[in-house]
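Researcher: I'd like a structural prediction for the single chain below. Treat it as a standalone chain; there are no partners to consider.
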Amino acid sequence: MTYLQENKDRVKAYIITHGHDDNMGSLSYALKAAPAPVYCSNVTCSMIKDNFRRYKENPKVDFHIVDSSGKAIIADRKFKFFSTSHSVAQSFACPGPRG
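Model: Treating it as a single chain, here is the predicted structure.
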């Protein structure tokens, strides 16, 4: 988290590809260290909100729901998502941004 705190002005978004704890478990801490919008699927968004409720955390989150085969522009960069096979519905992957 130290890196995030020291570079919070560089953090433009968090892309959460699926709702497993290894992917979203520390999100509330990351958001406290470096607030930024969260891009995720509808299912993952629901799981994140459930986690926050369960651990009595209430960070302010600017959720952006993305389709697992959709696109987004984040910090003037184009991102294209694609569906993956995974044990969590609506999982996706995201290659690096394009200019």
